[in-house]
Amino acid sequence: MRQQSVRMTLLTGLFLVQAGLGAQTLSVSFTTPLHGQHFTECSDIPVQADVQVTGGEVQNVQFFRNGLLMNTDTKAPYEFNWKDVPPGVYGLTAVVNGKQGGTASAGPVVISVGDGPDGNILANGEFSCSLWPWTFNIWEASARATFKLDTTTGLAAGSAAVIDVTVPGTANWQIQLQNPVALQSGRTYELGFMARATPARTIEVTLQENKEPYTVYFQQNVPVDQDNFFGPFEFVCEINDPAAFLRFNVGAQAGTFVLDQVELIDPTVTSVKSPDRGGRPAAFILGRNFPNPFNAGTVIEYSIAFPSEVRVEIVDMNGRRVRSLAGGSRTAGTHQIAWDGRNDAGEALPSGVYAYRIQAAAAGRTSSFSKKMLLLN
What we know:
By secondary structure, the chain is an all-beta fold. Helices cover about 0% and strands about 55% of the residues.
């Protein structure tokens, strides 16, 4: 099923709430970043709030990302530097607490970092820059496992997450990798990821509440062996949970599990659009090829905000170019290009993981992005 995104315009401007207790009045607003702002992946993003108070003193200002506490500052200027931010769409809020008991909040200020498929609400699904905001849990005292970022796994170009289980638990959930996501009732989400397991195993993938009673909203048992793309798995959400977790439970068997290119797609939203672009795509959006896995052929989709010089190539997992698909000037908008699984000589390529790599040059800036796909002959 091909992913179709419904374009929506995000509200611009600042959301501001004031609250008072007795004679004390507090207000807070974001100075930076701005609502709708776009940053390149792995940027350092300054976060700052302006606070006004009368009739009392400020106890602290708390900064939240998608409902999770990021930083607490007790002295003006109320700010911090968010370092090496991985790709994702983030909703930032600020809460000021007064010493006399008052409170006020500002946000959400929604920003996007990096360029990815439309509607992807998961941060750092390709394990760029760092492992954050993924966290690793071992719940069985006798279990032993390690979690690391690895650039030499052979699963795909770039980084991947690797879990080595040396002593398994008695159930998959006893060793898990998790990432926070905000879920909204009435939405239909699509989950997909690339993975490899040695030896083969069945893992559990869940979307779950992160507090008592730890309600499981979605669960999928997925057999994993050699390199493959799994999904999309469809999930119809029936609850609002701004602090849910996507979890990969892998702990019932010893061995190695490799994870990459995790996407949780909400088709009703799209990547953040900067106001000055009039709703056009952010500088570059690289979509998911469809179908994936594939044999007879697949279609690659990308969007550009400005007329650009574009080059599209297929590379193997050693970074060698095997096919040049397109090159030349392209107009602003969304474009598609097909690949038949053959190299430049017209020969059918063997089964395996390949990457499509696209470069777009405009206004003195060149953007380059790649994603993985699985060819099955």
